[in-house]
Amino acid sequence: MVGLKEELLKSIWHAFTALDLDRSGKVSKSQLKASGAPGPVLSHNLCTVLNVPHDPVALEEHFRDDDEGPVSNQGYMPYLNKFILEKVQGNFDKVEFNRMCWTLCAKKNLSKSPSLLSDEDAFKVWVIFNFLSEDKYPLIIVPEEIEYLLKKLTEAMGAGWQQEQFDHYKIALNTSREGLSAWELIDLIGSGQFSKGMDQQTVSMAINEVFNELILDVLKQGYMLKKGHKRKNWTERWFVLKPNIISYYISEDLKDKKGDIILDSNCCVEALPDKDGKKCLFLIKCLDKSFEISASDKKKKQEWIQAIQTTVSLLRAGSPPPHKEARQKRKELRQKLLAEQEELERQMKELQAANENKQKELETVRKQLEAAAARAAEEEKKRLQTQVELQDRFSLELEREKMVRQKMEEQVAQKSSELEQYLQRVRELEEMYKQLQEALEDEKQARQDEETVRKLQARLLEEESAKRAELEKWHLEQQQTIQMTEAEKQELENQRMIKEQALQVAMQQLEQLELERKEALEQYEEVKKKLEMAANNTKSWKDKVAHHEGLIRLIEPGSKNPHLITNWGPAAFTEAELEERQKSWKGKKTASE
């Protein structure tokens, strides 16, 4: 997709640069947008021929400006890439696309001078120029590609290539510019400079053949006979071989297409022996079908077999068509030579710069040597003068040094005496310092003793205060105890009275209980008598039954609860009734207290 985008950009660049410019060299928006323009304009036509959905407000949103605002090439290219070229899928007619761009730019740029080329031939040369031009703007075709194109045209016309003539032209071209524009290339081919003796029809056929090969990727074409799959008859067809397909038409005008033979890496081609009166046969095998074809002669047969085998080999290797691969190699070679030339120029510049630097350094060294020689002569002269002056000065300095030495010896003796006195004074000061240090230690000890006594006095005062506070506290507690003793005594008296009253009530209750116990005992005696009587009756009845039956054991009634035994015999009440009475006594006792 990157290579396709570059090819599209070259044609669009011609169309864009052909639009009307304002004074600043920019294009009005109305010439780029589909809305607001009276006739066909660039953006709308591009979307149409490239089968891209057109967005009429995309350009307006991209620039956000009034309709009269100018748009430069740098401003339109981002819109072109984002809203048009990125959406291209490859399902468009390249010839129709190029013809649209040619229509926009040809009228303004095409020369009016007499030419061997028709408008259709000029259009094809323009498309070939876009294919062979360099990938930089403004677009030009370099002399190497011009030579390649002219050789292809000369070969297609069946003429001989005039290398010497082109070399002269190339030298003249290199002195003035790097290459030719599209319109200059059209003028060059139309002038007949390199096709002398050829008529317009021959030149047109050569251009068409080169156009088919370079632009339409036609690797080979021609009439052959094809055997039908259903009726098995032989029909003449015009075959066109492209990198991945063989199309066949009724005639070479390519108007009525009859079918395609899809080529892939699994296809193969092989020669067949003559049969059914047909000669020069070969077979194209594909995955789903096989095609029997008859060439006009053995040479054509071999050429077609070789061309198809080469095409399948390229498909297996994933390589581009031969002319595109050759173009890429030529471009890489030019880039390599250009890089080598630039590297050579850089090295020459570096060598030249290094040479100039060496020359400058040598000149600097020469000047430095001359200056050093002059300085050396001057220094020698000054040295001799200085030597005489130094000898005189040395004699004076020697005498002066002797006098200074004597003075120094006297001063040393005086300083020695002063030093002895100073040392004596230092020893006295050290002795005084020791005495002062001892006095300070005594004073410090006295202060510590004073501080100890002061702390002892403070502690005694604190203890005295604490004891006094404790005595006062004991005195208060004693008074409170006395008061509490009086109150407790009164309270105990009240409690004693209450307890006596409760004791009397309890004695009364005890007497009442004694009476109730006696009544209950009397009732118990009566019940006991009745029970003995019932037991006797039951025993006599049981004896009778046992006498008659012998096997019957009667169930006797028994006491459900254990009897309570008191000091006076069996109790007349149960344990539960006793607990209830104890709770009642405790409640009455608590209430009385």
- Please summarize the sheet with the most strands: 7 strands, antiparallel
Give a count of the beta strands, DSSP E runs of length 2 or more. Answer: 11
Low-confidence stretches: 34-40, 65-71
> Gyration radius, to the nearest Å?
69 Å
Specify the CATH class of the domain at 1-108.
Answer: Mainly Alpha
Given helix and strand content, the structural type is alpha+beta
Give the overall form: flat
CATH topology of the domain at 1-108: Recoverin, domain 1
For the termini, the CA-CA separation is 116 Å
CATH architecture of the domain at 1-108: Orthogonal Bundle
List the secondary-structure elements in sequence, H or E. HEHHEHHHHHHHEEEEEEEHHEEH
Strand content: 5-15%
Q: What strand order characterises the main sheet?
A: 6-5-4-3-9-8-7
Helix content: 55-70%
Number of helices: 13
Residue-averaged pLDDT, rounded?
81
Label this structure with key terms:
593 residues; single chain; Recoverin, domain 1; PH-domain like; 13 helices; flat; alpha+beta
Task: Explain the layout of strands and helices.
Layout (H helix, E strand, L loop, with lengths): L1 H16 L9 E2 L13 H8 L8 H6 L6 E2 L1 H11 L10 H16 L9 H14 L10 H15 L5 H14 L5 H9 L9 H15 L5 E8 L6 E9 L2 E5 L7 E6 L5 E5 L8 E5 L4 E5 L3 H20 L4 H227 L16 E2 L2 E2 L4 H18 L1
Antiparallel strand pairs: 1-2, 3-4, 3-9, 4-5, 5-6, 7-8, 8-9, 10-11
Protein name: Switch-associated protein 70
Keywords: Cell membrane, Cell projection, Coiled coil, Cytoplasm, DNA-binding, Membrane, Nucleus, Phosphoprotein
GO molecular function, one term: DNA binding
